[in-house]
Sequence to fold (849 residues):
Amino acid sequence: MTEPLPAIVLIGHGMVGQRYLEALAERGATATHRVTVLCEEPRPAYDRVHLSSYFSGSSPEELSLTPAGFMAEHGIELHLGDPAESVDRAARTVTSRSGRVFPYDVLVLATGSYPFVPPVPGKDAPGCFVYRTIEDLLAIEEYAHTLPHTPSGGTPTGAVVGGGLLGLEAAGALQGLGLSTHIVEFAPRLMPVQVDEGGGAALLRTIEGMGLTVHTGVGTQAVLTGHDGSVTGMSLSDGSALDTGLVVFSAGVRPRDQLARDCGLAVGERGGISVDARCRTSDPRVYAIGECAQAVDGRVYGLVAPGYEMAETAAEDLLGREREFTGADLSTKLKLLGVDVASFGDAHGAAEGSLDVVWSDSRSGIYKKLVMSAEGVLLGGVLVGDAEAYGLLRPLTGSVPPVAPEQLVLPAGLGPAAQLGPSALPDTAVICSCHNVTKKAVTACSTLPEVKKRTRAGTGCGGCLKVIGQLLPPAADPGLCGCFAYTRAELYEIVRTRRLASYRELLDGHGRPEARGGEGCEVCKPAVGSIIASLAPAVGASGYVLDGEQAALQDTNDHFLANLQRNGSYSVVPRIPGGEITPEKLIVIGEVARDFGLYTKITGGQRIDLFGASVDQLPAIWARLVDAGFESGHAYGKALRTVKSCVGQTWCRYGVQDSVRMAIDLELRYRGLRAPHKLKSAVSGCTRECAEAQSKDFGVIATANGWNLYVGGNGGAVPRHADLLAQDLSDAELVRLIDRFLMFYIRTADRLERTSTWLERLEGGLDHLRDVVVHDSLGLCAELESLMAEHVAHYRDEWAETLRDPERLRRFVSFVNAPGAPDPTVRFVPERGQVKPDLAVLTMGGPVR
Fold:
């Protein structure tokens, strides 16, 4: 009879538990052992480090750390929602909540920690929450939507007890839910464990500037409740009171060691299951890893990186290999409420004789401190507001930096430039602290995917990704994707010169050999679809993006000619050229919004957006709008969005040209023009620049002698002022240069590359661009103008075309197997006289399209 495989029972399936399973699988131990996992939560392991990204759109599925098929592939038995209730070490069995009994040869405790809730009156009242799991977030989100506005119409209030890492994450979540948010921290500063007094002050100023209210140096005395028992406020230790309808406790965590206590395992005086350097408990058959364990140095580590290292150590010891965990790096880099915060090494300068090198700029919310020994050794540091140097500074801890320490903290221009890059790091420098990966291991790889696969670096908190990118050689293959060895610009030339009207022709004729005959990928299909659409008349393709094969190439929004919103509804954006609209058309928009129950918003681009349409309503809504003379605003496409304008000389006493007329002419000329990325424009009637033309992809400013043309600007996360390309142009000269500029951009830019990035990447920059489009140095201008003329001559409104074709209208259904049935997940709640998405009923993964 075959001997049964030895049994490993893992209690807990969080981040550290999943890492332990992966470590077993990588070492072949899942083939030689029977592995059972008891998980308390209803879902497999997920990324707690980025838990708050749920509120910015990440689904629980996207947060998952358990690859599809991983458990089945390695024969691991996972029991969700069935935690361990007791351990019998004499019988070597674990009993779960369901009553099942699991024998073990090796037991691994990865039970993690639990949130500490101060023992204050009212802590268990309805409206009190902790911030630890996805279920906690769902509960907070649902309750927040039930809170009423104040009698004066103000937003409801929420409060977070705790100003540490998770406390600030929770505060950001409450603010994102529309609550006026308070943070109550007992310590005299925020993040007292990670940052010093100076860093805490910089962090406080920045966070208060975001509209949050911070109370430091005070504790919570009691949670106040109303007649129904739910939360109405808090009383604080300084005698003040705080009106709030929701309280989140995030005042630290405690190791979950009760299971170990109950079965007689040794625990630390202040909690945590005692383990040795091999992560074994007082029972050699039982291991403890992660936040539930107290290491040999007496610490309970609350960061994921030490937990991962403990998981690796326990897996190695199981196989009889030598490895020890004696302590870990407590460095951390996070973005909290949009603010970069990092600390590493001896951040508080506890070492005797240590000296500080500090740069502080309270205007910008930037604080940098390096802790140095008298001999010049870097001991640690704190970075708030600008943690760009963290990836290089942390690996240098314990050594003498190759440049003077002040050069490492001073901003550019205030001192000699620091010539410090990844090449200055020794091979032994740890680049990824989450997975303890050295520079030598990173440089042994050629690409980022290879680094992630071989070393796991970059798959944790992500703080090391920039340095990894700097250590890797430049990409040798410039191909657009795995299907094509050509860049987007090269594919454009192939499509143009060979007059290819279909993606299939391009893939089969010019794709990589292994990709020919295949279906393509999500990178190249929309990119090629855009190329064909921008060249449609010239290559003999249909200009309608949903004709035949073109439909399968489009991005999500283009499939329904509308923008998909977070609750599964769609927005409708009619074109309003130059922001000019007649009263009659304005009335039609109001009537449509009223009749279909849509939310209306006047945008920064001088349009009116209508939100909340279901996919089956789109044709009926657009039928009304098209009848009234509206056409698609292309808000869903990589195309021209708007040409914004001021009122110009017609009305304004400062105006020197008719900016409204010019804006309308430009918008109607370039409407529907498909490009590598969205395009925005504006026309200002004088140098006062009310239309903000210099923040646009192409902007026009009137002068007494004509028009100045600016190009390559954008707003967004990395704003850029546009550059002056030409000045004092006539109407005809202006249009001709814009034609050339746009078609040259479409011809040579990479996929999803804005004009600003393209211009900065362009060899020769603005001077080269001026040579090409103004002076025709490459002899291309006649061709560029001809391509634009083809586009203008063949423009057709996509929604008008759609409404004329019953076959095209068949795609506008929520469910193909139940035409006419509305999507039950798309629901709304009232707000300020309109509607907004009812986020509490969103499906976990979002509506399926």
Summary: The chain is about 30% helix and 20% strand. Residues 731-748 form the longest helix (18 residues).
